[in-house]
Amino acid sequence: MADKRRRIYYTKAQITNGLITKGKEWMFKDTTEYIGQYHRYSTDEVFSEPSYVDGKSRILIPYVDVNTINQQNEIGIDFTKNFEYDAIKNIDIKKSITPNPSQINPTDKDRKRGWMERYFAQKVNDNNILELTKDDFDNVGTDDGLDKILWEKFKIRWRLIGNMDDIINTNRQTTLLKSEDYPSLNDYITDFREFS
Fold first, then answer.
1. pTM, whole model, 2 decimals?
2. Which domain holds residue 71?
3. What is the DSSP pairing of strand 15-27 with strand 33-41?
4. Could you tell me which of 29, 45, 26 has the C-alpha nearest to residue 37?
5. DSSP string covering 154-192
6. Are residues 69 and 120 in the same domain?
7. What is the per-residue pLDDT across 2-20, written as a single tens digit (0 to 9) for each?
8. Distance in angstroms (rounded) separating the CA atoms of residues 113 and 185
9. Cβ count near 159 (within 10 Å)
10. How many domains does the chain contain in total?
11. Domain edge (last residue) among 88, 120, 146
């Protein structure tokens, strides 16, 4: 079974093709020693074959003499099962922090100028929309905020004062324009008079 690379595309500068091992250097995850041509990526991934062939190239891990390990293993533990874990344990998965829902209110400064910024984030895999405080918005992509890979942040200018019909029409138009990129916004914002 072929293994997949971390990324779909690598530039030529990120790949070293046509390397050769004569043995005692690389092996497959099933502990079978590999002898032959291989290639390496700038991400430290190493695959069999001179260059990547989908369905044929297999990931290589550093060679370990499994027979020697098994002979030295007096307590009967099969260390060969740890090789696959060792190959994947370097993946860093950051726990995404989701802020608690909060009510955003315009400040006195917002009311004086007639509009306020409203801050949002949309989850990329399910289009869930969150309204954020300015601090939560600024923290997207940090250790204290939403994961920038899972959440895409955006903001809109929300009209607060003026003729009620103008307020409604302006806020509706703003929402419609932004919902071209963030369709769930139409479901999230339903009161175009909010905060007026």
1. 0.53
2. 12-88
3. antiparallel
4. 26
5. EEEEEE-SS-HHHHHHHHHHHHHHHHTT-TTHHHH---T
6. no
7. 577 877 778 888 899 989 9
8. 25
9. 20
10. 2
11. 88
